[in-house]
């Protein structure tokens, strides 16, 4: 249908006067919450505020179309919606504003995300998924604009799989025949992001129940629509997605004004029905919205909006328009509405007061307890003049935070370091240790799963080999591994460019689409960002996706989603949500600037919270896949691009054997020098070790196997204790993963104590590798480079035995 046909739909939802007044009450409660939140920031009780004022009425209409089993991926102005669906209380709203780290008080993020970042707890206390089909669900918000769109696509895609794949019909706690709609919200300015367009195109191709609401208040902070969107209308420029008729592919597009309550309710009912019943994606463009307090507490919109615009916004405020409609239609009297507005303010005041007390009273109690201990220490040590000011500052601070308590205790203990140890000093020390542990739980915990399915809890099963085991191409080991896992678990599926029909460009999925069907081994368009998002959303809903990024260099397209969404999901919900997505890719050595990358420094620095596996061959990769597919944690597996045609012995238990993460393997024992490496470099180093042995140098070669986690048992330090010399070698840029490994071994493991020579790092050149075999040889470390680096170490120690070569 056209925008004109949907501009003023008639109210068709069977709502009563009580429904109307309930919505009016919620709308005014939300408005008062926004107004109060801004004041709390300016009073110094919160650090930042961003609010949903001006968006209340369309969110109420959306909430009336949201059913059990549905999912939301939104942005930071959806407070009215979250309260309307019963997944947020006003006390929790203010608890998040104050950053209360108590997960009972602030269940969305436990104070880890700034206000307006909503989430429901999808995991029970043991880390298992709850019955998501029977609850209203919100995936955990992120701040990057349009970053919610890739995940939204994945949650909608899961509904398609649950409906169309009969093997998934058994999971009735996760889906009701795929009837669930994935609701997304986004501001009009954020539709300028590529992720928005990519996600909408993919949804149209996939035909999934994704309902996107664009809240259009004409601005993106201070930048008006004429700088944001062609024609200043996202619905106008997206009309090419409009399907031509029922049964045709494409979108349904609706346009409705954000202050038209009747039109909004009707539009959302019809739009959600199309999504739910036909699995057709829908775009709803909500126009003529306002933002009464401006973008956030960071500034005032009076600086960039004209007087005419400000006047228009005041007259078109959706709450004022709703009041006008209720009076005009005879649904309420002036007195009734006045009472509702007054009571709404009182409700918010009560919630705000209770939330502040719940946040601040425990801190005051902790402060008072600490002050009591410190005052005794002052008396015990007789150093009143030195410590009195520190303790008094803490004691008289009207609004202390926990950092003030810990900071003061540390400084006090520093001041008495030369005093005789006393009972009071020991009490303070023990209490400080307790506070640090408590705050580690509050602020540093749950980066990874705490459940029985955490990677470290997966039983290790050794690979077994039949006496007559075949030597096959490495890709065939992976193919057999995937085949076995797909048979074992119907929730596993794989998507990616060229994964389906041809079985990926290196044939590890060859023949599996024919065997398991297109729903489980699926080709996608060229769209790395939303391939990852498709996996995140499906994994959130209990499925086990393997998403393929064709080459490691192309991870750049998706690194923002991996970093800002997947990597911090368990952390930012303090164990409330998980998405055990496996990202499969390939890299390291080959020819060419864009097909042989090893950007490990970028990866290691940006995706903490995702495991990083760097297997040297396909058998090792298969062991990692077997482990990860039984775990509930996300991981990136980087296969060796030049290893698919190399011969390997296929294990008899190819789909069952598992490899632990974080445990290096000694590939060759030695006594003179330890070389630490991974991936394709293992073959290079092993060849160099063979050449070094010919001149009397014994090299111990260690394959770290995984970079995150890294050598959890400190096996490399044990090797250095024997050899006293070390070389860290890989194909990343200088100062990249070699420096990462060195820091772990020398600093974290304390292995510097065992060294008799300077540790050496051998990396690639600081540029991408040039094309051709010569380009590879001169761009990345080769066996001769390894030989020379190790030889130089030995020449320094025994110059007569190992004279200079060059």
Mean pLDDT: 95
The N- and C-terminal alpha carbons lie at a distance of 77 Å
Spatial sequence of strands, sheet with the most strands: 11-10-12-13-15-14-20
Largest sheet: 7 strands, mixed
Work out the radius of gyration: 30 Å
Gross morphology? globular
Count of helical stretches: 26
Give me the secondary-structure category.
alpha/beta
List low-pLDDT spans: 1-12
| Beta-strand fraction estimate | 5-15%
Number of strands: 22
Helix content: 40-55%
Structure in words:
The protein has 806 residues and is of the alpha/beta class. 42% of the residues lie in helices and 11% in strands. It is built from 26 helices and 22 strands. The chain has a seven-stranded mixed β-sheet with strand order 11-10-12-13-15-14-20, with helices on both faces. Helix 22 (681-693) links the parallel strand 18 and strand 19 (699-703). Helix 2 packs parallel to helix 8, helix 11 (334-381) packs parallel to helix 13 and helix 13 (402-415) runs antiparallel to helix 14 (423-444). It is globular and about 100 Å long. Residues 1-12 have low confidence and may be disordered. Keywords: Oxidoreductase, Thiamine pyrophosphate.
């Amino acid at each position: 249908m056209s925008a004109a046909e949907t501009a003023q739909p008639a109210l068709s939802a069977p709502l009563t006067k009580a429904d109307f007044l309930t919505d009016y009450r919620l709308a005014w409660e939300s408005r008062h919450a926004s107004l109060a939140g801004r004041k709390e920031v300016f009073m110094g009780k919160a650090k930042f505020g961003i609010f949903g004022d001006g968006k209340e009425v369309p969110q109420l209409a959306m909430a009336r179309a949201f059913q059990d089993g549905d999912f939301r991926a939104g942005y930071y102005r959806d407070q009215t919606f979250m309260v309307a669906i019963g997944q947020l209380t006003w006390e929790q709203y203010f608890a998040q504003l104050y950053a209360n780290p108590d997960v009972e008080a602030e269940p969305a993020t436990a104070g880890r995300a700034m206000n307006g970042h909503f989430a429901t707890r999808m995991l029970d206390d043991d880390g298992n998924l709850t019955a998501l089909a029977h609850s209203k669900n919100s995936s955990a918000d992120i701040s990057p604009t349009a970053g919610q769109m890739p995940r939204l696509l994945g949650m909608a895609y899961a509904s398609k799989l649950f409906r169309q794949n009969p093997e998934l019909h058994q999971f009735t706690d996760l889906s009701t025949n795929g009837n669930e709609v994935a609701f997304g919200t986004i501001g009009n300015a954020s539709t300028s992001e590529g992720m928005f367009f990519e996600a909408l195109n993919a949804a149209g191709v996939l035909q999934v129940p994704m309902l996107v609401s664009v809240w259009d208040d004409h601005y993106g902070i201070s930048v008006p629509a004429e700088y944001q969107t062609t024609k200043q209308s996202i619905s106008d420029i997206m009309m090419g997605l409009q399907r031509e008729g029922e049964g045709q592919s494409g979108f349904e597009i609706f346009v409705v004004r954000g202050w038209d309550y009747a039109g909004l309710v009707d539009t959302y009912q019809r739009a959600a029905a199309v999504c739910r019943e036909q699995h057709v994606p829908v775009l709803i463009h909500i126009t003529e919205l306002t933002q009464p307090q401006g973008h956030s507490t960071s500034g005032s919109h009076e600086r960039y909006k004209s007087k005419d615009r400000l006047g228009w916004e005041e007259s078109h405020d959706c709450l004022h328009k709703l009041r006008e409609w209720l009076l005009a239609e005879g649904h309420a009297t002036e007195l009734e509405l006045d009472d509702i507005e007054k009571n709404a303010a009182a409700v918010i005041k009560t919630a705000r007061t209770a939330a502040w007390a719940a946040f601040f009273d425990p801190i005051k109690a902790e402060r008072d307890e600490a002050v009591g201990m410190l005052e005794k220490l002052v008396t015990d040590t007789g150093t009143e003049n030195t410590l009195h000011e520190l303790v008094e500052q803490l004691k008289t601070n009207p609004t202390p935070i926990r950092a003030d308590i810990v900071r003061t205790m540390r400084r006090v203990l520093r001041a008495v370091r030369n005093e005789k140890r006393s009972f009071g000093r020991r009490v303070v020390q023990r209490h400080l240790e307790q506070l640090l542990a408590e705050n580690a739980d509050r602020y540093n915990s749950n980066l990874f799963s705490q459940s029985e399915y955490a990677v470290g809890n997966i039983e290790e099963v050794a690979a077994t080999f039949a006496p007559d085991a075949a030597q096959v191409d490495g890709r065939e080991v992976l193919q057999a591994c995937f085949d076995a896992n797909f048979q074992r678990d119907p929730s596993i599926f794989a998507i990616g460019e060229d994964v389906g029909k041809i079985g990926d460009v290196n044939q590890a999925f060859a023949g599996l689409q024919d065997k398991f069907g297109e729903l489980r081994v699926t080709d996608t368009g060229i769209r790395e960002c939303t391939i990852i998002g498709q996996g995140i959303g499906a994994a959130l809903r209990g499925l086990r996706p393997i998403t393929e990024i064709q080459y490691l260099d192309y991870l750049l397209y998706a690194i923002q989603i991996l970093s800002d969404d997947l990597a911090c999901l368990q952390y930012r919900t303090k164990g409330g949500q998980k998405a055990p997505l496996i990202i499969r890719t390939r890299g390291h050595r080959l020819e060419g600037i864009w097909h042989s990358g090893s950007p490990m420094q970028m990866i290691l620095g940006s995706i903490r919270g995702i495991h990083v596996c760097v297997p040297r061959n396909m058998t090792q990769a298969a062991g990692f896949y077997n482990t990860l597919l039984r775990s509930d944690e996300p991981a990136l597996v980087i296969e060796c691009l030049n290893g698919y045609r190399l011969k390997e012995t296929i294990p008899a238990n190819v789909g069952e054997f598992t490899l632990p993460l974080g445990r290096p393997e000694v590939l060759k024992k030695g006594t003179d020098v330890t070389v630490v490496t991974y991936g394709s470099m293992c073959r290079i180093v092993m060849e160099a070790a063979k050449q070094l042995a010919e001149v009397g140098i014994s090299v111990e070669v260690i394959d770290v196997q995984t970079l995150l986690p890294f050598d959890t048992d400190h096996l490399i330090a044990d090797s250095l204790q024997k050899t006293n010399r070390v070389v860290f070698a890989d194909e990343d840029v200088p100062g990249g993963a070699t420096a990462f490994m060195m820091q772990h071994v020398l600093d974290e493991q304390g292995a510097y104590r065992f060294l008799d020579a300077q540790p050496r790092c051998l990396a690639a050149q600081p540029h991408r590798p040039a094309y051709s075999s010569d380009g590879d040889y001169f761009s990345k470390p080769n066996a001769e480079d390894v030989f020379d680096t190790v030889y130089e170490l030995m020449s320094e120690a025994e110059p007569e035995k190992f004279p200079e070569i060059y």
